[in-house]
Amino acid sequence: MTHFETQICSCLLQAHYGEIVAKVGTHLIRTGCQPLRLIANDTETPIDQVKKALCVLIHHNFASYHVHKRGFVEYEVHCAHIIRILRYPRYIYSAKTLYGDTGELIVEELLQNGKMTMSAVVKKVADRLRETMEDNKTREHSETSNTFVRLVQTHFLQKCGLVSESVTAEGSQPSRAPTLITDEKEMYTVPNLSVVAQGKRRRMSEDGTEPKSKRSKPEHSDQEMEFVGKSGDSGGGIITDLHRALASLARATVESVVQERFGSRSARIFRLLLRKRHLEQKQVEDFAMIPAKEAKEMMYRMLSENYISLQEIPKTPDHAPSRTFYLYTVNLLPTARMILQRCYKTVVNLINRREYETRENKRLLEKSQRIEAIMASMQATGAEEQQLQEIEEMITAPEQQQLETLKHNVNMLDSSENQVDETIFILESYINTTRIEKEVPSKR
Amino acid sequence: MTGQGEDVNYILALKQELRGACKKLPYYIDHVVTKKDVERYANKYQENDCKKDWIPDWRRLPRELKPRIKRIKKTNTAPMVSQPKKPQTVTNEEVIQKLEVLEKKDSEHKSDEETEEKEKNKDDEEDEVAEEEYDEEECEEENDYIASYFDDGDNYEASDDNMDEATY
């Protein structure tokens, strides 16, 4: 795992599950697989706490275990699942838009609790719904059950396999069991693609087999935007080329990153290179209509940050520089990877900054919470208007201002995290599907 | 690409709510709680119950992660005692007991003692977490000592021929 991926996981685990879980989880990311005792020794954590932490990690599908051939149990952590914590609010929201409040609560319960049986989820959600509205109890249960089933059918939720326990440690093959234990599948959110046909959520599921089957022939440069096309000779079917769609989205994302980072003229050069594939320095200057000196500067800057790359094509066998073509080009995949790492780093920075802001104003926040609590209890016991006002004035005006600024900053940082996660989604989807495509030719 | 501001605000609120809710769930493991010397007034009004409610589905987890169930003397602390294969955790009194017994008896009777203590330990009360850790280490050291007692003896006799290395 890369440095930034490890850092993100560490931050997220700490914020959501506490210091011990973060320590154990981060350690396992760095070392790969390890048995229990080794984890305890290396992290210098008491073994019972390591056990608790591992239970939590496994329960929430962040970690898994297997039996080493020498007979002991090894644990490993799945980085990608932890990073997915950033997307939980989006999952809940898309469940809400499609399945209403019931769907929202079901997904929220499962995301918070990792794994639950269907009966437990339905009961909890029905109770919560009943609290908010004065409805008929039995009706809520059946409605909740139905929503649950629909969520499973559309792959929002997934049943866990059951493992059989052996004597020493874990079990062998997971097998489907009649008793339902379900968890939230790592799924893609409501896609931004408007071209994808109905059932798009299923198509965007984690396994890469679906896009593979729907892929059309190798793309040409002018077919970049075509990701809806006819299938075969039957004439009636419409297929979507998900990979091309993702590539197109990734391209657009990278273009906008270049624009924000280097300015609109550099973006123009970048788009030019994307369209024309390979260009010489002189050609770029002509096509983009930018003076030579500035064009050179911009291109070297983009080159140094790996947004574009240089390819040498020698005219003569001795590779003399004066007789060699130097072509600029854009390689989308490595560029996307680089930007993805920057996204991870950005999220880490955002989280750190938000926590810093909260820490700096901790005293003030606690004071404001205390005062709110006092006011709430006083209102409940029926206090006079004047008394309430007195309490309110315990927070001075500058402090109030400070609180407002803090709230604004924290909200901004949080929203930024969400937005960066969107970019992460697009880039990761593109990178992962590209990898699959590259594997296919070798199998032939 | 995100679309309307409503989405953004709702998702933001959800995110902050999730973050706050996480800390109250039993999955949130704080740093080790230091021993309470004096019972704090504030503790009476803090909700610690929900934190200890989570019992994992042990069918899905390796047995080594399962704690030994304590007798319910302290309801606050969660039962988390490691269960090593051969050596067993013992309390301080038992350690002293064991030492005394070992002083008197022969080393040949040691295995009997261990099995007796194994059965005894399953019903024993345990002290708090910190002491358990201490006991575990102590016990392991003890058992290491016992386990290597004969080994050292063997090596000692074997290396008599060489006489190169310093003996202890």
From TrEMBL, chain A:
One of its GO terms (molecular function) is single-stranded DNA binding. The keyword Ubl conjugation does not apply. Residues 196-234 are annotated as: Disordered. Residues 204-223 have a biased composition (Basic and acidic residues). Pfam families: HTH_9 (PF08221), RPC3_helical (PF20912), WHD_POLR3C (PF22536). The keyword Transcription applies. Residues 8-67 form the RNA polymerase III subunit RPC82-related helix-turn-helix domain. Component of the RNA polymerase III (Pol III) complex consisting of 17 subunits. DNA-dependent RNA polymerase catalyzes the transcription of DNA into RNA using the four ribonucleoside triphosphates as substrates. Specific core component of RNA polymerase III which synthesizes small RNAs, such as 5S rRNA and tRNAs. Belongs to the eukaryotic RPC3/POLR3C RNA polymerase subunit family. This is DNA-directed RNA polymerase III subunit RPC3.
UniProtKB/TrEMBL annotation, chain B:
Residues 75-94 have a biased composition (Polar residues). It is found in: Nucleus. Residues 95-123 have a biased composition (Basic and acidic residues). Residues 74-168 are annotated as: Disordered. Keywords: Nucleus. GO terms for cellular component: RNA polymerase III complex. GO terms for biological process: transcription by RNA polymerase III. InterPro entries: RNA_pol_III_Rpc31 (IPR024661). Belongs to the eukaryotic RPC7 RNA polymerase subunit family. Pfam families: RNA_pol_3_Rpc31. This is DNA-directed RNA polymerase III subunit. Residues 124-144, 151-168 have a biased composition (Acidic residues). It comes from the Eukaryota.
